[in-house]
Amino acid sequence: MSGNINLLSDTLAAAKAEDRAALIAYLPAGFPTVDGGIEAIKAAFDGGADVVEVGLPHSDPVLDGPVIQTADDIALRGGVRIADVMRTVREAHAATGKPVLVMTYWNPIDRYGVERFTAELAEAGGAGCILPDLPVQEAALWREHAQKHGLATVFVVAPSSRDARLAEITAAGSGFVYAASLMGVTGTRESVGAQAEDLVTRTRATRSDLPVCVGLGVSDAAQAAEVAAFADGVIVGSAFVKRMLDAPDDASGVDAVRALAADLAKGVRRGA
Amino acid sequence: MPSNNYFFPDPEGQVPTTGGYFGAFGGKFIPEALVAAVDEVAVEYDKAKADPEFARELNDLMVDYTGRPSSLTEVPRFAAEAGGARVFLKREDLNHTGSHKINNVLGQALLTKRMGKTRVIAETGAGQHGVATATACALFGLDCTIYMGEIDTERQALNVARMRMLGAEVVAVKSGSRTLKDAINEAFRDWVANVDHTHYLFGTVAGPHPFPAMVRDFHRVIGVEARRQILERAGRLPDAAIACVGGGSNAIGLFHAFIPDADVRLIGCEPAGHGIDTGEHAATLTAGEPGILHGSRSYVLQDDEGQITEPYSISAGLDYPGIGPEHSYLKDSGRGEYRAVTDDAAMQALRLLSRTEGIIPAIESAHALAGALEVGKELGPDGLIVVNLSGRGDKDMDTAARYFGLYDTDAEVAADEAHTAEIEGDAK
After folding, report:
1. What pTM was computed for the model?
2. Which of B52, B189, B361, B417 is deepest in the core (most CB within 10 A)?
């Protein structure tokens, strides 16, 4: 069974056809529980997210700030396993028909076995992976298996990426390009980095037809609108997780996710 | 996979590859935001290596500031307990700041200046790398932030005070296992956000390329000196060169110059903590599997789904679930041997050296001494061993005093008495 890379591309193209940016939400699997995490993802789609990235929690999340570290920690202490992440992808996709990606670090996949992981993710209906500590030079094995199973390989670009490197990355990637809005780890910020628009422009100048979606630091509708004015997609993670951490109980956490997604969905439609 | 080219004819020219691989190990598994900075380090390091002025500056510092060459001390009263083999200690504990760490720090501090960066960050476990880094930053006028696991700030409180005295900011890291691994995670997070003016002065032979090779090169002087000194003193090469391994910097520093000497066994001593069987250890090469941690592929302690497991050692400097990729390469190629030494064996060796030779070693280095006691018995009276005494034990006196019950009165020590009673059997 082939993965849903085409569904991902079609979804991003459809947003573009509506002359708006896509809304991409990040939520960790197993947080606060496996079933609770699945409900939160469905709520994000229900509120208006076009794509969801499911976090596969890792013990050493070097690119994540305190909010996602806390959620990962709760998920790992709850005993989340890769099988649970696959179930999360399967149920979230089956319930909504929308594209679902996995975002994680390279060691869990390396250890699990890249063929086994990509085959299972495709079978679960996954659309691809974002692996922020697997730079393009180390990614040959992953790309071979991802391609074989119809999964997107979403690479990250950063404000520090030079133009020649951007060209290498867009040539190797698929699905979309994840443009980090600023130099830093995940987390909500008062403002989105001024470097983001420049990075999007430079990434597009590589003449790649991949959509360029911007993440890191976006937390509210106004910021989403600001980013949507120059990017093909807006990625929001920590703001969702923070709402869930702050909620008095799991049910109101899910409601808060739905409400934030609805708010951000308006934002990405204002940006055009 | 390993080829003989690594050992002959040019040990410095063959590994790592340009991509930073030592056989199957190494590489550069880093976020895109750090790629430009890590590449800059590699380029600047290559330029510095080719620049005679850099070599001259570094050599002057090693002689005038660090106090190199460090002594090679024969320890016959200690060796009497090691099957009668001759044992020599390479005295890195006598370097300025009290450990081998200063070798690498001075090299990278000079490089920081060359790159025009004004701020340095570093991780530290036992505090020795942090102290050395804070020292170099004071010397060169660089801003300095040191990340240290909260547990380690408690058990190595003396070194925290030393770093602050030197003007460094010390950040106690409260995430994860609150030890060295988490300090490194936090330092990487800082680096991603501040990379334009900050150099991450990585403290061991792990991390992304070029750190494993660069840090090794700066420590290589240990083995180069030891090899010359033992030839002068004993008239032959040793049967074994022994060092403790956490990340592996002092060990690779001792080993590297001996790699072409096929008859010299290279023996690394890993922390077995409470025993490998208990699961409470940090013996990465003995009990780990290949994986990716902190930017390179090497052996790591992990579960079946790639989550890094929490290590344990009485020694803060060895309490790490990873290991430098070149050690993984030496292990798999058979050139290096790695054995595990328990907390108790290390502490007994610490006391033995203190009481037979008047040298109090760091708990890290005591693991190598315990290994030497074993290897000496295996070799017998004709044996000749060089041990890297990588650091001095001042920082560990609180841990040792509690372990051996050396305080006169202390409520906390009273709680440890039951344990102390168990190890009352005197080492000497």
Report:
1. 0.93
2. B361
